[in-house]
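User: I'm preparing a small set of examples for a lab meeting where we compare how different chains pack in three dimensions. I only have the primary sequence for this one, and I'd like the structure in token form so I can line it up with the others. Please keep the answer compact; I'll paste it straight into my notes.
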Amino acid sequence: MDVLEKALKRAFINKDESSETLNPKFIVNNPEKNDYLLTTLQNDFRQCRTFFISVAFITQSGLNAIKAQLADLDKAGISGKILTSTYLGFNNPDVFNSLLQIPNVEVRISEKLGFHSKGYLFDMGEYQSFIIGSSNLTMAALKQNYEWNVKLTSYDNGEMISTIQEHLLSEWQEAKPLTIEWIDTFKKSYQPIVTSRMLKETPEMIVESDALYITPNKMQRLALDSLVALRETKAKKGLVVSATGTGKTYLAALDVLAFKPKRMLFIVHREQILTKAMESFKKIIGGPENDYGILSGSTKNLEAKYLFATNIMVAKDDYQELLGKEAFDYILIDEVHKAGSETYRKIIDFFEPEFLLGMTATPERTDGFNIFELFDYNVAYEIRLQEALEEDLLCPFHYFGVTDYEKEGLLINETTDLKYLATQERVNFLINKIKYYGCSGNDAKGLVFCSRKEEAKELSRLFNERGIPSSYLSGDHSSDFRESEVERLENGDIHYIFTIDIFNEGIDIPKVNQIIMLRNTESSIIFIQQLGRGLRKDESKEFVTVIDFIGNYKNNYMIPMALSGDHSRNKNNLRRDTIDATYISGLSAINFEEIAKDRIFTSIDQVKMDSMAELKKSFITLKNRLNRIPYLLDFEKFGSVDPLVIIGKEKIYYQFLAKLGETEGTISEAEMLALKFVSIEFLSGLRPHELLVLNFFFETKEVSITLEEVKQLFLNLDVPYTEDIFESMLKVLDLSFYETVTRRGYQASQLFEVTDTKIEATEQLQQFWQNPYFNKLMIDVIQTGLEKTKQYEVTEPLGLYKKYRRKDVLRLLNMDFKQNEQGIGGYTFSNNHFAIFVTLDKGKDFNASLIAYEDEFLNESTFRWFTKSPRTIDSPEVQVLKNPENWKIHLFIKRKYNKKDNETDFYYMGEMSPIQKTIEQKQKPTNDGKYKNIVEMDFSLVTPVESNMYEFLTKVIEE
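Assistant: Understood. Below is the structure token output for the 959-residue chain.
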């Protein structure tokens, strides 16, 4: 039966029908599962040969969501059409101007009364794909709104697609071409019609209808409660970590209002911030005007009840003497990450307030200073970028990772000479890209971060020459001059300020609607600081455009790390974060052009993610925060390095601590082996059962527990199990599950013996309990493993796209483990489970196999596979696959991008069934010139591979 016939039969006649591809799809935005119409659209754009969009409503943010894909299509010489309208006055002139910037899209305007279509058609070459439903080309419709859409496929001569195409062609011919002249005419008569049917995309602003009463947002309410609770413990200091733009100043004012101090001191490092902060406090607290005052180089209101001062002034001996140690019962330091300087330390050491509050977006410092120690490790509240986006506290952003200028094969990198950074050709290239990706309202107010002063200065000059008013700022400029240039930017007198690092922090420019990055990503902290310059909500913008020009930089791997907040240092996690950016919340979006994506992959390939130097940095950062030695559970809970990365390198955490000189006790060789067993086998938390039994013994120090009591323990904890799982757990705990070599390796420190009625602690384990430090290390591993179990569904032994080692699969499915993992090789079968393990793209130099296997995905639903050699149709495994009734066949894929990758985990792709007609015995050449029998077959996956995962697994990276 033809593949499309199968797909239609599955969709409309029998859902149990096997179908390999082209399945109809019902699409509903599901933010909880990171499943969006946007993802489907973006992937169809990547695969199409041409496209036709017919939608009534388009917003700039909706258009931005597909611009990177359209840019890649343009490079490939592929173009398409967009048909839209002026219905209800929804589409404003800005979006029509943005449409004109896209070179490979022809746009026409329908004048049909009540034009309200929503359809996306893609010519895929062998077939046509179309999505029809309720979604316009707006970011809300593509990612957030509750919309219904159906995706169907058709061959060219299908009646439905023919009817749609004929109708669109007719509508297209009647519509007017979009031109500059048309837009100019449209602007003169444009009047938006606001109705309940319009789609509102403007981010919510803080409502201040009553200047003396501002309702705190969700973040502020939680932070205020936490500060009250902290002070109830008699704490004298507290730290609030809050992403830029989330309302820290209002939060501080609300806390001061609750505290009711006799006098308050607000300290910040820049005089220009003081006035804005004071105005915010007035709105919250109210009271007489003379209650508020400023202490700065130009103003000295020392008697004010609420005093706003620069750190420079408050640190001076004269003013400290005038004010006195106990002048203020509440002191607040804004941008407190700067408090490592001598002036701040002098202030903190001098004054004796009842409470000291510090606020910052970036407490982790690159200079080694420990902010957490300064505030007695009292973190009252913390909200980072991802959480702030989820809570709709920030302006949505559209990040574009784009390719930087390249000439004759030469790429921009860290050492590129200035003369190449500021050529006329590169300036043309930059301007074209900036215009293409645009900004909210098409009236740019942008910050451009450069790699060095000379580049910023020269690019500013060249932009001015091109009629784009710009300025250049560096640390050499005075504060007054910087302020005047910022004011010019906000007023629209200039469009861009080129700078290096002076705007990383401590500057508030709400009207910034474009961030341009022309430099290497030095750290994820700096990246987020620079991104944050545009995230404050403002009525002048609906979103912020972030254009990151990605050159050939060694640190490109930090880009997905910063955007996702994933500091696990797992390479494949970062690769997935680059391809699949659905982790970003709300109406924000992340897109990479293909070449930029490849440059990030190259950087990930080359960097050593688990070097001791990098792991030590993460250790020190966490130690500074906790004021103690961090353990594996701390790394897990604080989203730092994945504990599995540390264990993968050192086998047990004790050895890692020993290398750093940070051990807090000693353990014996036998205890090390016991820790190795639990760390290697259970830390991943794939299922909780073994860990819960371990936890019981280490908490109670009981020498035995009956099997019935274990079952009751699971029931009490609401942990489901089957007899298969229970049997498997017992085999693992007494080591009988493991193949001979592995079992012998662990036996010297065996922890348990299992009888028909109970689990008993061995004499060795009872001896181990006498060492408190061993107990602490072991409980840490157990608790970390239990924390990790939250990532898995307990009711299912395997989770789709989760990662497993071969022996994990055997354990979870209660299969036989009769040979070591290397011996298992490509597949094993027992207990009615057939597990197939495939490494894709083994690298050019792969020679570990006698035969070159060509296992591959044919499409998202079909996988081609080869047995080991020599095998024939009559071989036992082939007979199982020819008669698969009562067998479950599982596919596990590992992607090896280069020979330096040391990934041991496979992604679970779900169950699949062999396509019987494809099972065929063949002969394949060996690398010694001979031929051996082998059996080839195709499988149909029960669940087609999600498009982003498919791209991740099949993506070809040029070396």
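A couple of notes for your slides: The chain has five domains: 3-189, 219-383, 394-606, 629-791, 803-954. DSSP finds 38 helices and 36 strands in the chain.

User: Perfect, thanks.
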